[in-house]
Specification:
With 801 residues, the chain is α+β, with helices and mostly antiparallel strands. The protein folds into five domains: 93 residues, no CATH class; 212 residues, Rossmann fold, CATH 3.40.50; 99 residues, Sandwich (Immunoglobulin-like); 243 residues, Rossmann fold (3-Layer(aba) Sandwich), CATH 3.40.50; 97 residues, Immunoglobulin-like, CATH 2.60.40.1930. 25% of the residues lie in helices and 31% in strands. The chain is built from 17 helices and 39 strands. The longest helix is centred in the first third of the chain and has 24 residues. It starts with 5 loop residues before the first strand and ends with a helix. The relative contact order is 0.12.
C-alpha cells in the first residue's frame, strides 16, 4: 500500500546561492537579448528555452529525490528458527516431564529414541541413530536417566500451537536450521498465517556437513521484508560459516531483535573417547611396530582400562592403561606382525557405567604388512670396531641389503674380500638413489675419499629422495672436512673445531635418555618403559665421544652424556632431525659395539635395525618401478593439510627433470580431486603438492606421469570425526551474544508465552521508502540533452550561429 509521495531537495547554502545566481544571470541575459531584437517572437522562444534549461539545471543542484513511502498490505513476520543438527541429539536436558515419567512408569522418553526425531532425521541420520542405539543398550543395565535430548526439549517450540497468541499480530515462519549430514535432505519451512492453518510449505535440498548459525539468520531477514522478530532455539554449537555475531550485527542494523532459547548443558557429559589411533601405513614382518593412541576422559575419576587391539586375521593384543580424570591420556601398543598382507586393525576401549555414549570407544585403520629389502650404504675410512660390528649387524638382518665402501687411506685398493663391498662411490645419481640409508663413518674429502660433488649428491638424496643419513664420527676427526660442503647443512650438531679428535677416557662413560628418548622407537631396547630405562642405564659404557658443543635448533636429542656438560647443558650424543623429505641421525660415540658384552647381538642388532627402518620408512610408503610416493602426516586428520611428495624417473632410469605429474584422490564417497604436483628438484625428479581431505576413511591415490605414461596406485587413510558430534557441551554464550547485539532477550523454554507477548508488543517494521534520485536519473539527463539540441538547432534557424 503506497502513501503520499513527495519531491524533496537537499539544498546546501552554497548550492542555493549558485542556483539563484545562475537563474538571475540567465533572466538578465534573456531580457537583454529580447530588447535588442525588439521582442522578436523567435528570439523570445529561444530565450525562454534557454531559461527552462538553466532552471532545470539549477534545480538539479539541489539533488532532488522522489520519495515514495510504501507500507505492505500483509502482516509482519515472526521467524522461529530451531536447530536440528546432530549435536541436538545429545541427551543432557532434565525436565519435569521426564522426572515425572521416571517416577510413574520407570521407562520414560529419555531412554527411547524419539520417533518424530528419527523420522525427521531420515536415512542420513543413521550414524546418529546408531550412536543412540549403542547408548540405549548400555543404559539398559543401569537405571534410566531423567534427561531428554536437546531436540526433544525444544519440540514444543516447533509446533504451530505454541504461537497461537501471535496469529492476530503476525505470520509465524517455523524453520529448521543447521542440520549436519553428509547426504542431502529436504527441509521444510512452515508458515502459519494469521487466518490459521498452514499457508504452504517451501522445500529445498540441504547438504551441509556442519552447523551454520549465521547464514539462516541472514537468509530469513532477506526473504522476509516485514520481519518483526526472530526466535532462535539452539545449543549454540556452530562450526561453519561466519561468526553468528556478524549476522546479529546485520539484524540490529535493520531493527530486528532475536530472542534466543539456549538448550543443553555447557559442561561436557561423562564420557571416554578414543581420540586417535595412529596406525602406520605399513610394517615389516617380524619387526616390532609401535602404534600410539590417545583417550580423552570427561569422567570425574581416574579409570583403569584394558584396551584391546584386534587384527582382521584374529590376533588380539591387550594393554592396561590408566586414564586420568578430565584429561587426555596418550600411550602406545607394541605389535610384531607375523605374516604378509593387507590387514585392518581395530582398537576398542571398554565402556564405563557412567558414560553417556559408547559409539566413540573404537577406531579402525588399515595397515600393509610387507617383507622389505632395504638397501643400505656404509662408507668408512678404516675398519674400526664400530664399523665391523655395524657391518655384521646389517649383513645378518634378513630385511637389509648392505653395501660397504671402505677407503683404506694409505692403501692402493678399496673394499674387502666379501661380496657386500663395492669399489667406488655410486657413479650416477640414479644408482645412488637406490639406497634407503647411508652411513657416513670417519670420512672426509682428503686421501681421495668423498668429493664435493658426491657430498652434494648425498644432500639431494636426503632432501629430495627421502633417504636417511647417519653420521658416525671417529677419532680422526675427518667429518670436520665435510662441514664446508653441502653436508654441513645436514649436520644436526655444532662441533668443537678446537678438539677435532674428540675426547677419550680410560673409564667407561654412559648414555642418559632424555624425555624424548624415553618415548622414541629408536631407543626402545625393551618392551616396557621401565625395563627400557634400566637397559640403557646398564649398557656397557663408551670410552670415546665426539667433540659436540650443542644440538642445532629444530633437532631432537634422544641421549646425552651422563656426566659431561658445558654452558648449554649436558652434551648431546644421539641427535635426530628432519631435512627436506628425509631424516638425519648423529651418533656421537663409536662404542655401540660394546653393547654386545654378555648379551651378544641382543641390543646392538636391535638398535641399528630400528634406526635403518625408521630412516627408510617414509620413502617406502608406496613405490613402483619408476615412481615413489610419500606424504606427511601419514595418517592425517580430516581438514588437515597433507604435504605430498613424489619421485618420478624416466623409463631409461634417469630422474624426470620436468613434466606433468598429477595425483588423483578418490574419497570414500566417490568424489575425486586432482592435485597438480610441481617440480621441486629437477636433478632428482622430485615433485610436491598439497591437499586437504574433507572426509574420514580410506582414500584411493593414483599418481600419474603424462610423459612416461606410468602410474602408481596407493591408499591413504584419513582419521577424524564429522563436524557434528553427540556429547559436546552446549555453548549458551553464543546465543547470549546474539541476543545482546540485536537488543533481544535470552529466554527459557517455559517462557513461550512471555516471548509471544514481547513479540506482540514490538512496533511494526518501519515503512519502506523508495527514493528515486532525479538528479542522476538517465531519463532526466536524456531530456536535458534533447533540450540543448533543440536550443542549438533553433539558434541556427534564426541565424545566430
Amino acid at each position: 500500500m503506497s502513501e503520499t509521495s513527495t519531491l524533496t531537495f537537499q539544498w546546501t547554502p552554497s548550492m542555493a546561492v549558485l542556483a539563484i545566481l545562475a537563474v538571475a544571470a540567465t533572466v538578465w541575459v534573456s531580457v537583454k537579448a529580447c530588447r535588442r531584437t525588439r521582442w522578436r517572437p523567435a528570439t523570445v522562444g529561444l530565450e525562454t528555452l534557454r531559461l527552462v534549461i538553466v532552471i532545470v539545471g539549477a534545480l538539479l543542484l539541489g539533488a532532488p529525490e522522489w520519495v515514495e513511502p510504501f507500507r505492505p498490505d500483509e502482516k509482519p513476520v515472526v521467524a522461529v528458527l530451531w536447530d536440528d543438527s546432530t549435536s541436538m541429539q545429545t541427551r543432557d536436558v532434565a525436565t519435569k516431564q521426564a522426572i515425572n515419567a521416571d517416577r510413574s512408569s520407570g521407562e520414560d522418553r529419555a531412554d527411547e529414541p524419539d520417533a518424530e526425531a528419527d523420522e525427521a532425521n531420515g536415512p542420513a541420520g543413521d550414524e546418529t541413530a546408531a550412536g543412540q542405539e549403542s547408548a540405549n543398550n548400555s543404559q539398559s543395565a543401569r537405571p534410566p536417566k531423567r534427561t531428554i535430548s536437546r531436540a526433544d526439549a525444544i519440540e514444543q517450540l516447533t509446533r504451530s500451537e505454541a504461537w497461537e497468541s501471535l496469529r492476530q499480530r503476525a505470520d509465524v515462519v517455523i524453520q529448521p536450521i543447521g542440520r549436519s549430514d553428509s547426504a542431502s535432505r529436504a527441509t521444510t519451512v512452515k508458515r502459519i498465517s494469521a487466518s490459521g492453518g498452514d499457508a504452504g510449505a517451501i522445500t529445498g535440498n540441504k547438504a551441509e556437513k556442519g552447523t551454520d548459525l549465521s547464514k539462516p539468520l541472514i537468509d530469513v531477514a532477506e526473504s522476509n521484508r516485514q520481519l518483526l522478530g526472530v526466535v532462535l532455539a539452539s545449543d549454540g554449537d556452530w562450526n561453519q560459516g561466519l561468526p553468528p555475531v556478524a549476522a546479529a550485527g546485520r539484524l540490529r542494523s535493520i531493527g530486528v531483535p532475536v530472542f534466543t532459547v539456549p538448550v543443553g548443558s555447557p559442561v561436557k557429559l561423562p564420557d571416554l573417547e578414543l581420540v586417535s589411533f595412529d596406525v602406520p601405513t605399513f610394517a615389516v614382518t617380524g619387526k616390532p611396530v609401535r602404534i600410539p593412541f590417545s583417550i580423552e576422559s570427561s569422567l570425574p575419576r581416574d579409570t583403569q582400562l584394558t584396551v584391546t587391539m584386534s587384527t582382521s586375521d584374529g590376533e588380539e593384543i591387550t594393554k592396561q592403561v590408566r586414564v586420568d580424570a578430565m584429561s587426555r591420556t596418550s600411550d602406545a601398543l607394541d605389535w610384531t606382525p607375523t605374516r604378509r598382507g593387507e590387514l585392518t586393525l581395530e582398537l576398542d576401549v571398554p565402556g564405563q557405567a557412567e558414560e553417556t555414549r559408547e559409539d566413540n570407544n573404537s577406531k579402525t585403520a588399515p595397515i600393509s604388512i610387507r617383507e622389505e629389502k632395504l638397501k643400505v650404504l656404509v662408507i668408512e675410512s678404516v675398519p674400526r670396531w664400530e664399523y665391523r660390528y655395524l657391518r655384521n649387524a646389517l649383513s645378518r638382518d634378513p630385511g637389509v641389503e648392505v653395501a660397504c665402501l671402505l677407503f683404506h687411506p694409505g692403501l692402493d685398493k678399496r673394499g674387502g674380500g666379501n661380496s657386500d663391498y663395492i669399489k667406488e662411490f655410486p657413479p650416477t645419481k640414479d644408482q645412488l638413489a637406490t639406497y634407503d640409508v647411508v652411513f657416513l663413518g670417519d670420512v672426509g674429502l682428503n686421501d681421495s675419499q668423498l668429493t664435493p660433488m658426491q657430498c652434494q649428491w648425498l644432500k639431494g638424496l636426503v632432501q629430495q629422495q627421502a633417504s636417511g643419513l647417519v653420521f658416525l664420527p671417529g677419532w680422526q676427526g675427518r667429518q670436520f672436512e665435510l662441514l664446508d660442503t653441502d653436508l654441513g647443512e645436514l649436520m644436526p650438531v655444532v662441533l668443537d673445531d678446537s678438539q677435532p679428535g674428540g675426547w677419550g677416557s680410560r673409564t667407561p662413560q654412559h648414555f642418559d635418555l632424555t624425555q624424548l628418548g624415553r618415548r622414541s622407537l629408536l631407543t626402545k631396547l625393551a618392551d616396557t618403559a621401565d625395563e627400557n630405562w634400566t637397559v640403557w642405564a646398564n649398557l656397557p659404557g663408551f670410552q670415546w665421544y665426539a667433540p659436540v658443543v650443542v644440538a642445532k635448533p629444530g633437532t631432537e636429542t634422544l641421549c646425552v652424556h651422563q656426566e659431561v656438560s658445558n654452558q648449554y647443558g649436558r652434551l648431546p650424543l644421539l641427535v635426530t632431525r628432519t631435512f627436506g623429505a628425509g631424516k638425519v641421525l648423529f651418533m656421537g660415540t663409536d662404542g655401540a659395539w660394546r653393547w654386545r658384552k654378555g648379551v651378544e647381538d641382543l641390543y646392538h642388532y636391535r638398535f641399528w635395525g630400528q634406526v635403518v627402518r625408521w630412516m627408510a620408512y617414509r620413502r617406502n610408503m608406496s613405490q613402483g618401478e619408476t615412481m615413489r610416493l610419500f606424504y606427511t602426516p601419514e595418517q592425517p586428520d580430516v581438514r588437515q593439510t597433507l604435504s605430498v611428495s613424489a619421485n618420478v624417473m624416466e623409463l631409461s632410469g634417469e630422474p624426470l627433470s620436468d613434466g606433468n605429474v598429477t595425483l588423483q584422490v578418490e574419497a570414500p564417497s566417490g568424489q575425486t580431486q586432482t592435485v597438480r604436483l610441481k617440480s621441486t628438484g629437477e636433478e632428482w625428479g622430485a615433485f610436491a603438492g598439497e591437499l586437504m581431505p574433507v572426509e574420514p576413511g580410506e582414500h584411493q591415490l593414483t599418481l600419474y606421469c603424462a610423459e612416461t605414461g606410468q602410474k602408481l596406485e596407493s591408499k591413504l587413510f584419513v582419521q577424524g570425526e564429522p563436524l557434528e558430534q553427540v556429547g559436546n557441551p552446549a555453548r549458551p554464550e553464543v546465543l547470549e551474544e546474539i541476543a545482546r547485539v540485536t537488543r533481544g532477550q535470552v529466554m527459557a523454554m517455559d517462557q513461550i508465552d512471555e516471548m509471544a507477548a514481547w513479540l506482540s508488543s514490538l512496533p511494526d517494521p518501519p515503512v519502506s521508502i523508495r527514493r528515486v534520485a532525479l538528479w542522476s536519473h538517465p531519463l532526466l539527463a536524456g531530456s536535458l540533452i534533447v533540450l540543448l539540441a533543440l536550443f542549438w538547432i533553433g539558434r541556427k534557424i534564426v541565424g545566430l550561429v
